[in-house]
Amino acid sequence: MSQREGSLDPQADSSVSPLPHLEAKIRQTHSLARLLTKYAEQLLQEYVQHQGDPFGLPGFSPPRLPVAGLSAPAPGHAGLPVPEQLQLDAGALAALPPLLEVVRRRQAELNPRAPRLLRRLEDAARQARALGAAVEAVLAALGAEPRGPRLEPAAAFAAGIFPAKVLGLRVCGLYSEWVSRTEADLSQLVPGGPA
C-alpha cells in the first residue's frame, strides 16, 4: 500500500482512498461550517442594528466582557494538531446554544418587535448544536478521543440594559468567531484544501 492511500493528503487521488465516507463527512461538515459562517455574520449585523446607539456608530468599541464558560479561540489554536483544534471547536460549539438562548430571551424583552432577530438567535443555537455534532462525528471517524463531559456554561448576564446588550453582542461575536474557526480548521482536512 502506498503512503498516499488512505491519507487525507490533498495530493492523493481520492479514487484510491479507502476513506470515501470520511472524506464525504469532512466535506459536508466543512460546507455546513462555511454556510453558518455567513449566517453568523448576518446575525451579528442584525443584532447590532437592533441595539440602538452607540452600537451601530462608527468607532464604537464595546468592552470585551468575559463570557462564563466560553472564550475566543486562542492565538495558538491554529498551531495545534487538527484533532485538538476540532476538539476545542466542538467544545465551544456545545457551550454556545445555552448562551444564545439567554441572549434570545433577553432580546425578546428588549426588542419584542424584532421577530427576525429572535428567530436568527434561535436558529443560531440550533445550528451550533448541529455543527458541533457534525464535528464530533468527524472526530469519531478520525479516531480522536472524545473531548470529555460537556459543561453547561453559566448563562447569568449582568443586570442592566446596556451590560446585557454588550454581553449579547459578545456572545454573537463568539458564535461568529468559533464557526469561522471551525470552518478554517475543517478546511485543513478537505481533500484539495490547504495542507
Structure explained in plain terms:
This protein is an all-alpha fold and 195 residues long. Helix content is 58%, strand content 0%. The chain contains four helices and no strands. The longest helix is centred in the N-terminal third of the chain and has 30 residues, at 20-49. Mean pLDDT is 86; it is low at 1-16.
Could you list some keywords that capture this structure?
195 residues; 0% strand; elongated; 4 helices; disordered N terminus
SSE map:
Blueprint (H helix, E strand, L loop, with lengths): L19 H30 L32 H29 L4 H28 L18 H27 L8
Helix pairs in contact: 1-3, 1-4, 2-3, 2-4
Mean pLDDT comes to 86
Query: What is the radius of gyration?
Result: 19 Å
What is the SS-derived class?
mainly alpha
* Fraction in beta strands: under 5%
User: Which word captures the global form?
Assistant: elongated
Sum this structure up briefly.
With 195 residues, the protein is mostly helical. It has four helices and no strands.
